[in-house]
Amino acid sequence: MQEDIRCLRQDIENLAVKRDVGVARIAGMEKELRSTISQVEQFTNVKDRRGLMMAGADQAFRELMSIFKDDPIAGPLHDASLSVWAKIQTSE
Asked: Whole-angstrom Cα distance, residue 55 to residue 39?
């Protein structure tokens, strides 16, 4: 997209495209480029947030399991943590 904008600017300078038409096209292309960049950043931020949440949940489950490792509640706690982990992974 940036290469297309650069080529269009060259065409305007070389008078291959009328200035007013070219400027309007460049404005539209730059708007589309900004929109695409914004969508990619939003997607990346969601993925980063989700990764941090998963890492925090994993650490919390590991800490709970180490605290209750010799306790009779360890088995049910492990099963519950697996259930919660599965729910976290499938949620948006």
From this structure: 24
Three state DSSP letters for 34-83: HHHHHHHHHHHHHHHHHHHHHHHHHHHHHHHHHHCCCCCCHHHHHHHHHH
Query: How far is it, in rounded angstroms, from Cα 45 to Cα 88?
Result: 18
DSSP tag of 2? H
Q: Report the predicted TM-score, pTM, of the whole model to 2 decimal places.
A: 0.49
Q: What is the pLDDT of residues 4-44, one digit of tens each?
A: 778 778 877 778 878 888 888 888 888 888 888 888 888 88
35/29 Cα distance (integer angstroms): 10
What radius of gyration, in Å, describes the C-alpha atoms of the chain? Answer: 26
- Do residues 2 and 33 touch, judged by C-beta distance below 8 A? yes
Task: Output the average pLDDT for the chain.
Answer: 84
* pLDDT at res. 19: 81
31 three-state secondary structure = helix
